[in-house]
Predict the structure.
Amino acid sequence: GQQVMQIPQYQHVQEGEDFTTYCNSSTTLSNIQWYKQRPGGHPVFLIQLVKSGEVKKQKRLTFQFGEAKKNSSLHITATQTTDVGTYFCAGLAGNMLTFGGGTRLMVKP
Amino acid sequence: SQTIHQWPATLVQPVGSPLSLECTVEGTSNPNLYWYRQAAGRGLQLLFYSIGIGQISSEVPQNLSASRPQDRQFILSSKKLLLSDSGFYLCAWTRGERGTDTQYFGPGTRLTVL
């Protein structure tokens, strides 16, 4: 079946450093979504990418969808303590939406 | 605006006891509804989804069941809880088909089975 892998599983950064999480699918995706879950909270939708090679930005966050539509990345520039949480990707193939395992980001002030 | 409610927020239950978690959505009609489970520090596992009243699809075999008695109500149940049922249970809804539309998650229920 479809598998969506995220790396790294955990990441500690110093405040102000950059952070990147990668999402890789075993199958070609129709689209990919990204969610953020704060500690103790529920996942909140961030963005959806649909087109091959698409790049979208939200302030310090940059999302990319690979040319082959099998991978994606989320890059945060100059992390802040408010960025703490777990970031999930979710890839759609056929009618199956599969979530990655998430990357937990911890930021040291 | 649309809101999604879940209760209870936390629950501690003994092994072998029954379970009933409720999810309701306000401000929309004919939503697609989903139950996910998240083990501590892990990703999201889809348990059930529903595209309409009485229509339930199960993604994984387990001792849980789901029902949708009303358009905006989704219930997760078990007759006898197992230790492995502990986790964070999240209800979500979408307007459109899963994956093509934003998933809106409820606040979740933290279940501990002792």
